[in-house]
Amino acid sequence: xxxxxxxxxxxxxxxxxxxxxxxxxxxxxxxxxxxxxxxxxxxxxxxxxxxxxxxxxxxxxxxxxxxxxxxxxxxxxxxxxx
Length: 82
Ligand SMILES: [Zn+2]
Fold this sequence. Notes:
By secondary structure, this protein is mainly beta. Helices cover 7% and strands 26% of the residues.
């Protein structure tokens, strides 16, 4: 018996240029991280002009209040943490 194997040698190429971290701040009331709605890497965050973004979290998921963040408040967090 002869088996005819077809071997696929296609390597999956990973796209890493599309990966971004989520930007968080700590809730001043509960000190828990709150996602501020931005996605970027450190270089972008460092170069970010805060005047170009909405610096508010309209409703904090932890305490329900509105928070305003400065650049010093922000930090990056990769997915899957917790
Ligand atoms: Zn809060």
